[in-house]
Amino acid sequence: MDILKKIEQYRFQEDSLKWEGTFADYLHLLKEKPWVAQSAHSRIYNMIKDAGVETENDRKVYQFFSHQLFGLEEALEKLVEEYFHPSAKRLDVRKRILLLMGPVSGGKSTLVTMLKRGLEAYTRTDKGAVYAIKGCPMHEDPLHLIPLHLRDDFYEEYGIRIEGNLSPLNTMRLAEEYGGRLEDVLVERIFFSEDKRVGIGTFSPSDPKSQDIADLTGSIDFSTIAEYGSESDPRAYRFDGELNKANRGLMEFQEMLKCDEKFLWHLLSLTQEGNFKAGRFALISADELIVAHTNETEYRSFISNKKNEALHSRIIVMPVPYNLKVSQEERIYEKMIKESDVADVHIAPHTLKVAAMFTILTRLKDSKRGDVDLLKKMRLYDGENVEGYNLADVNEMKKEFQEEGMSGIDPRYVINRISSTIIRKGITSINALDVLRSLKEGLDQHPSITQELREKYLNFISLARKEYDEIAKKEVQKAFVYSYEESAKTLMDNYLDNVESFCNKTKLRDPLTGEEINPDEKLMRSIEEQIGISENAKKAFREEILIRISALARKGKKFDYRSHDRLREAIQKKLFADLKDVVKITTSAKTPDEQQLKKINEVVARLIDEHGYNSTSANDLLRYVGSLLNR
Length: 631
Ligand SMILES: Nc1ncnc2c1ncn2[C@@H]1O[C@H](COP(=O)(O)OP(=O)(O)OP(=O)(O)O)[C@@H](O)[C@H]1O
Ligand SMILES: [Mg+2]
Fold this sequence. Notes:
Blueprint: H1 3-17, E1 20-22, H2 23-32, H3 40-50, E2 53-56, E3 59-62, H4 63-66, H5 73-88, E4 97-101, H6 108-122, E5 130-133, H7 151-158, H8 168-176, E6 186-190, E7 200-203, H9 214-217, E8 219-220, H10 225-228, E9 237-238, H11 242-245, E10 250-253, H12 261-273, E11 275-276, E12 284-285, E13 289-294, H13 296-303, H14 309-312, E14 315-319, H15 326-338, E15 346-347, H16 351-363, H17 374-381, H18 391-400, H19 411-425, E16 429-430, H20 432-445, H21 451-480, H22 484-503, E17 508-509, E18 516-517, H23 521-528, H24 538-554, H25 565-588, H26 594-611, H27 615-629
Helix pairs in contact: 3-5, 15-16, 15-19, 16-20, 16-21, 19-20, 20-21, 21-25, 21-26, 21-27, 22-24, 22-25, 25-27, 26-27
Bound molecules: adenosine-5'-triphosphate (ATP) and magnesium ion.
Residues 108-109 line the site of magnesium ion (MG).
Protein name: PrkA family serine protein kinase
Organism: Lederbergia citri
GO molecular function: protein kinase activity
């Protein structure tokens, strides 16, 4: 569809959502849709919930966040279960400021932005609709019009609790514009928009000395005093501070802990009592979520200051740690690259994965369990199968350190290194080695990294490099086999036939001559030796495999070469061992002969067609693996 048509359609949609009526009409509407009177906290919770909740390993995964925040499922579950959900139920946490605490570039701002954009969209849906007194700069809740002494009756009839008093401005308007007839007061549907300053505010402290509290709570409009005669006339006041504008929705308080105390005191009363003081008026009721973010150091210094005690008790701190899963970290990079201007550069397969391995290693803490090194922990955290470990082990490891994920390398650093490599070299294709090199160079220039940490990180770079070497070798060897999956399957079937006849002490039949033959001991051993199974252990290994086959068969499942990790590894190694010389000679030939050339072209084509390389990265890979195999 052409863009002008879409614009027209959008306008039409927006128009069709509009609603305006008297307060009496609004009450009517409430009977039908009582949820539109929900509190700001409740609306935010429902927005998150309505986007869908999935369960994964006994964990709730909130879909609302899942298309932009990766690997933070646990932190987000905690945030929803311990803050949003109870605050939606009007429990006490609602009266606290939500403070997201986490390391730099860990996704705090992204999270807040998602809530803001989410609310803008949600208030355009039926479930998220919001109504306000028309013409009120703070989009006051129409239900505030109901006098205090009638609120119990209202609750009985509508089942809705009203909190907060009618603001000074609307009290005056009710008297002057509507002659006290509250049923006539005009109400309209509002749509949150940060740009239009409806329901969403952002407060960012500037210089503490010059900053005006007016930015937060509004100010007197001196030009109108002459007209209204007095500074305490609410019409002479501009209710245009961020707290005013964010009423009914959310206010982001940037750099809250760096802020001057006098600003924070306003928040104290707002969060605790649901109202704040502006100008010379009675307290103004407001209903909004206040969310701030900070890093650990800043937070520690804040709470160590006695003066902040009162505020501290009104803050609820939610950790937003770094993601600790390699595969999710890759997704973060992919997302960030897509958003950047280097999006059209070819990134060879495994490049981001290898960078992510390095990053995750810098974030992990050494387990106290002697049997788990960092690489193993990295794999386990990412949900990989590691023989001898299960989910319970992973959960146990996660409980070892509270602060895991609160330090290490941030995603922005990695993306910066990747972009600088691309831009500096003007290249159109990068691979894992380019990125590791660049990460390494970057460490030298990094101002905040101590010598000791640098040593440690350099070690992680070489670990990641070793992992890459293995991946690269496997990739090339696989591409050398005409059809890897098929060859693996054939070899496996052959092995299993022999194992079966060995264990059952039966004979095999030669497929050609039909003759009875003994199991092929040489073949079985040549596979088992690949994973170091000794002569003495071979019987137990073979029996274990047969048991696995029948266990699977009982569940109606078929054993294939992926069913048994060690056997799979053995089969792979055997296939590669048979090929090793061919691969080695072909990839490292300085002047390949005709046949080698043909093979190289075939392999390059396979890497391009089936594995996502381009011709530069495929040829680089072959050359690199050639050099590895000749070491
Ligand atoms: N877990 C994650 N999932 C998806 N993207 C992430 C994640 N962590 C960081 N990012 C990406 O990293 C970049 C930096 O994140 P963001 O600005 O939200 O971090 P921050 O915690 O606010 O950092 P700062 O402390 O520097 O303000 C963003 O592009 C963000 O999308
Ligand atoms: Mg931020």
